Amino acid sequence: MNDPVIQAIHRRAEKFPKATKTSVIEKFAERKNTIIKEKIIYTPKYVEVRRKSKEVERIAKNIRTMGKHDYFGQRALLYDEPRSASVVATVPNTELWRIGKTVFMGIIQGGMLEDLEYRIRLQFTTMEFTDLFVDRVIGRGTYGTVKLVTHKNTKRRYAMKCVHKRARAELERQILAENDHPFIISLVRTFKDDEFLYFLTELVTGGELFDAIRKLNILSQPQAQFYFGSMSLAIDYLHERTIVYRDLKPENVLLDHQGYIKLIDFGCARKLNGEKANTLIGTPHYMAPEVIRGEGYTHTADIWSLGVCFYEFVCGTFPFGRNATTTQELFNDILHGKLTFPSQVTSKCAIDLMKRLLCRPDKRIGGFSEIRKCEYFQGFRWDKLQGRELDPPLIPAKETYAEDNRGNPPDDDQLATPVTNVNWDRNF
Asked: Are 31 and 90 in contact (CB under 8 A)?
């Protein structure tokens, strides 16, 4: 339960129970009960799922499956418009917590409200691919290209990730479509043709965290708390939904214009439904020992990667394989090397946290609930981080993109124009 909207409402309910006395617990005993019907205007209300799960459906097609602590209805509180999708309870005994507009607007304010309104504006966007024109390339990767595109009429800008069709791209689309968190990139629409799959997402303009931490050099405790805490919240959100990310590193974290993080690139992510993953996948320096061994791993592999990032923040280098010249040497050091710390790192609580993150799976910190209890975060205002009320370590002075460091080479990948049979992805 780390979404800032949910957290803020629960804190208000705990501190001021009378202020939320109009809230109601609604129970749906039967499976397939319709909670909200598409195209109908209801009395505005915000609803949180308290128990079990439900689906949001549009024209008999599943859009998103929600679980405990997910929520809906925030759009109706801000805009007077018909519901854009039906909400159906898919399991018996679903429970919802409903609150009214007055309470909601009294709680969600400032930066949190601004971010919520921004994410809402991205939802259910209707447009044709021909409404978009390409401005420039802003990133390149192994499987494709990321471009800055602009809507011809609204002039709103987006990022368009263009990748060759493959099984993992379809899984990435499914995972992104289910996520709605302020520290995770928001997917707007998907588009496909005969050869490529296109991900239209929000545009994040502040550059990579990788570059930011190099500008800041060794991070102070408040700076490390900010970035590590934000990444922990994003990863915990995914883990609550049984998603293992598998490629956590500063290059996969962008900064928005306010200096807050956005986790991007879900090409390595997958869902675990009780089983273990076995694939050797990710970036070598950030891989957990159990991933390298191929012995089967779970969400704790992401906790190791968080530990590598935290070590990088505090120590300014990698915990393992600093002098490795080959992947095999790097893997050997991760598997058998001793965890040591630079002499300038004297914070006992920081060292203790790194030790608990970078250890064997059965001894490793289990997740966010244990991280926030660590001495390193004693007195840290998680509520202010989630409410976007903390001053970020670095606020971008201008728009920055990964491709800027390469001199923005010509768009020569032939992905600017769809090939044939273009259409919005019917499965989105």
From this structure: yes
The DSSP string of 155-188 is: --EEEEEEEE--HHHHHHHHHHHH---TTBPPEE
pLDDT confidence of residue 203: 96
Could you report the per-residue pLDDT of 10-45, keeping only the tens digit for each?
655 555 455 555 566 676 666 666 766 654 544 545
CATH domain 129-205+408-424 topology: Phosphorylase Kinase; domain 1 (3.30.200)
Residue 413 annotated to the active site: no
The per-residue pLDDT for range 223-263, each reduced to its tens digit, is 999 999 999 999 999 999 999 999 999 999 999 999 999 99
CA distance 257 to 413: 28
The neighbour count for residue 141, using CB atoms within 10 Å, is 12
Interatomic CA distance for residues 298 and 169, integer angstroms: 21
Cα separation, 16 vs 414, whole angstroms: 58
Look at strands 54-58 and 86-89 and give their pairing.
antiparallel
Contact by Cβ (8 Å): 134, 148: yes
Residue with tokens 């259409």: 423
Return the pLDDT at 335.
96
The CATH T-level fold of domain 209-386 is Transferase(Phosphotransferase); domain 1 (1.10.510)
Q: How many residues does the chain have?
A: 428
> What pairs with residue 140 in β-bridges?
145
Residue 114 C-alpha from the chain's centroid: 18
Domain boundaries, the chain: 4-108, 129-205+408-424, 209-386
CB atoms within 10 A of CB 336: 9
Architecture of the CATH domain 4-108: Sandwich (2.60)
Q: What's at 154, amino acid-wise?
A: T
Distance CA 21, CA 403 (A): 52
d(CA 199, CA 251): 19
User: One of 70, 180, 247, 265 is an active-site residue; which one?
Assistant: 247
Place of tokens 């208000």: 12
- Please give the structure tokens belonging to residue 100: 């009214």
